[in-house]
Amino acid sequence: MTPEEKYGTYGPGCLEGFSLEHNVRELGGYEVAGGRHVKRGVFVRCAALADLDADEVGLLGKLDLRSILDLRSRVESDATPDPIPAGVLFERVCAMRDENGDELDFSPEAIGLPLEDVMKLMSGGVPEDASPEERERLEGVLRRMNDEMAGYYTAMAFDNPAYRLMFDWIEKGEVPLLFHCTAGKDRTGVGAMLILLALGVSEGDALFDYDLTNVYRASCVKASLERAKDLIARSPELKTMVTMADGVDLALGQAVLRGVLERYGSYEAYFEAEYGLDQGRLEALRDRYTE
Questions:
Q1: Does 249 reside within a domain?
Q2: Does pTM top 0.85 for this prediction?
Q3: Tell me: the pLDDT tens digits for 57-112?
Q4: How many domains does the chain have?
Q5: What CATH number is attached to the domain comprising 180?
């Protein structure tokens, strides 16, 4: 049985009342060994809270959140600050960093790419009368973006202060926990996979949850592809990068997990080395957060 057959089109954690493009869902309902499932109402993932309307913020209030972890950079957070409910534990720790450990918001400026070029490409705005040389240069910029993103993605699983804090809160029982980034897809998606794997969910189901972003944000992905249709017609290999402006690439999610296994050999060894979660502490988490 496929994950979609087990959990439905929108997965086991669909939360009613939220716009799909805000990617709001919980991790409850995923199956773990022995026929148990991740508990409902404990782990919530979503896009930036400032994007939610008043009704959606009200629905979040009914979740009785105990903690909120903002995985964005300071630049992103300052531009659209979270509305933080009174009494909720809140921290902002960027989950994507460069080779020096500095925060990375993955803006064109942060990765050293010309902003004007990137905006042209992501909007499909390459002039039809551009010279072959200019077209080649601009498409090279997009390929560089793809290469840069792949490298930062695979690095997210290692030595990451955001995910260390996340697991620290989970161990201490600071739940229900809501964690998010800007679109709730990349930094949030990797964090969700790690939580699911720690609780004993299968790799296939963890990847299914990661890929659900493309279901929830399908209208956004479709709009990006439509804007860039001329670019894609000329260079079909760039379709993946355009898709990732609003969605995810399953292959990158798979690459993150492959990198974990290549370095540590097993997920259990990974959780112990990166978060101090030895077998006993992992079992304690599974006892607490599955039923």
A1: no
A2: yes
A3: 999 999 999 999 999 999 889 989 999 888 999 999 999 887 778 887 655 455 55
A4: 1
A5: 3.90.190.10
